[in-house]
Amino acid sequence: MVSFAVADLASGELLETHLPQLSLPPASVAKILTALYALDILGAEHEFQTKLVANGPVTNGVLDGDLVLVGGGDPTLDTNALAEMAAELKRAGVREVRGRFLVYGGALPRVQTIDPEQPDSAGYSPAISGLALNFNRVHFEWKRGAQGWALSMDARSDKYRPDVSMARMRVVERQVPVYTYASTPEADVWTVASGALGKGGARWLPVRLPELYAGDVFRTFARAQGVVLKPANVTQVRPVGTEIVSNSSQKLVEIIRGMLKYSTNITAEMVGLSATAARGVTALSLRDSAAEMNRWAAEKLGIPGTALVDHSGLGADSRMLAAPLAKGLAVADRHSVLGPLLKQIEMRKPDGKPDMSHPVSVHAKTGTLNFVSALAGYMKGPDGRDLAFAIFCADEAARAQISRADRIRPKGARPWNRKAKALQQQLIERWGNLYGA
C-alpha cells in the first residue's frame, strides 16, 4: 500500500495526494516530529547535564558520604566523557569516598527495550533511562586461539577500551539461536552459538542495565585516577547533595542533527521523553510520551491523525497520514527549523549510481522497517520552487508473517525496499516536472 502527498512550501496548498486518509507506519520518518517537538519544547540551545553529586562533606580530600553519578537524559554520553568526569573528580580534590557509589537514571522512565518485538540482540533497540552510555550498547569481540575462544565485552571509544563486568558472554555449542539473553540484577548475561562465530569478529549488543553499565565504566576510570569506589548500586531516589562535577552535552540542535543523519533510535526516545517531561507531563512509558507528542503535533503544526507509539518510529504500531504531514512540514519550514538539519538524499541514475547533476534536490528523512519504507521532507524543483512531501509504503501482510527471530534480516525485505525507494524517486521526479519546472 502507498500513500503520498506533496504541498507547495510557501502556501501549504496540497498539490497532489494518493490515498491521503490511509494511515501507514512511518518508520524513522517519525523522528521528524520528534525533532520538531524537542526543539520547540526544550529549545535549540538546550544542553543535558550528567553530574557527580556528593551527599556528604569533603574534608581533606575524603568524601564522608555517598558519591552519586546522576544522569540528566543525555543520549550522547560516551566513554570519553566519563573518563573526563573521573579526571575532574580528582581535580576537584576528592581522593577517597567512604560511602557508597550510586547511579541514578530516574530523570526519565525506565524502559527495558524500545520495541519488545525486536530480537534481544538488536543493538538499535536498547534499554532507556535517564543515564545512557554509548547509546546503551556494549562491544562484544571474539577471537579464536589455540585454547579456544577469547572473548571481551567492553565500552570502547576512540581513546579507551574499558572492560565491563556487568555484561557477560559465554560460548555454547550450538548452531541456532545465535544469541540468547537473560537478565539478572547484577548483569546482562548472554550466550552465543559456536557455529556462528567463525574465526573472529565483533558487534555491538544492546545494554539492558544502563545505570550499572555507566557505573561500571566510571568506576574503572575513577580507579585509574586513584579514587577507589565500591561497586555501583542503582538508586531510585533523586540525589540531594553538593554537585562536584558536571558534564554538558552538545547543544540540542546538534544532537538532533546527528539523530536525523544516523537515525539513532535511543536519541529520539530520550529527547522525546525529555520534551514531554519539560511540558510537565508524567509519562510512564514511551507510548505515554508519544501520545503527548501526538497531541502537540495536532495543536502546534496542524497534523491530525498522528498515532505514534514511540519517538523513534521503531514500534510497528505507529501510524501517520501523508497529507497532514506534508502540510505540517510546510508550517514548520516557516520557522526555518527543520530544513537545515535534514540530510541530502541522493537522486540516482537508472544504473543505481548517484546522479550528481540531477535537477531536483531533496533534503529529507528516510524510514525503513521490514516491508516498510517512508520518505518525507523538502524538495526543490528545477525552477527553484520549494515543495514539502511525504511518501509512505508498506506491505503489512508480509511484515506480519516474519518471526521475531528473523526480524533483523528477513527474506525478501531488501528487494522490496529497493522497489519502494525506486517508486519514491519516480514520484519526486514527477513532482519536479509537474510543479517545479
Provide a brief overview of the structure:
By secondary structure, the chain is α+β, with helices and mostly antiparallel strands. The chain folds into three domains: 2-45 and 251-435, DD-peptidase/beta-lactamase superfamily (Beta-lactamase), CATH 3.40.710.10; 49-109 and 211-248, 3-Layer(bba) Sandwich (D-tyrosyl-trna(Tyr) Deacylase, Chain: A); 139-204, no CATH class. Helix content is 28%, strand content 25%.
CATH-defined superfamily of the largest domain: DD-peptidase/beta-lactamase superfamily
CATH topology term of the largest domain: Beta-lactamase
Overall structural class, as computed from helix and strand content, comes to alpha+beta
What's the rounded overall pLDDT mean? 95
Binned strand content: 25-35%
Number of helices: 9
Number of domains: 3
The CA-CA distance between the termini, in Å, is 29 Å
The main β sheet shows up as:
6 strands, antiparallel
**CATH class group of the largest domain:** Alpha Beta
Q: Strands of the biggest beta sheet: in what spatial order?
A: 2-1-20-19-18-17
Given as residue ranges, the uncertain stretches (5+ residues, pLDDT < 50) are none
Rg calc: 24 Å
What does this protein look like?
The protein has 437 residues and is an alpha+beta fold. The protein folds into three domains: 229 residues, 3-Layer(aba) Sandwich (Beta-lactamase), CATH 3.40.710.10; 99 residues, D-tyrosyl-trna(Tyr) Deacylase, Chain: A, CATH 3.50.80; 66 residues, no CATH class. Helices cover 28% and strands 25% of the residues. It has nine helices and 20 strands. The chain has a six-stranded antiparallel β-sheet with strand order 2-1-20-19-18-17, sandwiched between helices. Strand 12 and strand 13 form a beta hairpin. Helix 1 runs antiparallel to helix 4, helix 1 runs parallel beside helix 5 and helix 2 crosses helix 3. The radius of gyration is 24 Å and the shape is globular. The chain starts with a strand and ends with a helix. 45% of the residues are buried.
